[in-house]
Amino acid sequence: MHVKTPRPPVSRLVRGAGATIAVALACSIVLAQVTDPLEILRRSVAARGNVDYAGVRTVVMFEGGVKVHGVEQEIHCQAPDKFRIMVVAPESERGKLWLVNGQVQWECDPHAHRALRVQLPPASQVRVQRLQEMDRLGRSMRLQYCGMETIAGHNAYVIKVYTQQGLPVKKTWIDAETFITLKTQRFDSAGRVKSSAYFTRISFDPEFSPGLFSFSPPAECTVIDTQRPPERMLLADAEQRAGFQAALPAYLPAGYHFQASSVAVIQLKGRNALWLSFTNGVDTFSLFQRRGGGPADTLRRGRSITWQSGQFRFTLLGPLSSGEMEQVRDSVRP
Question: What burial class does residue 126 get, using C-beta atoms within 10 Å of its C-beta: 0-12 exposed, 13-18 middle, 19+ buried?
Answer without folding.
Answer: middle
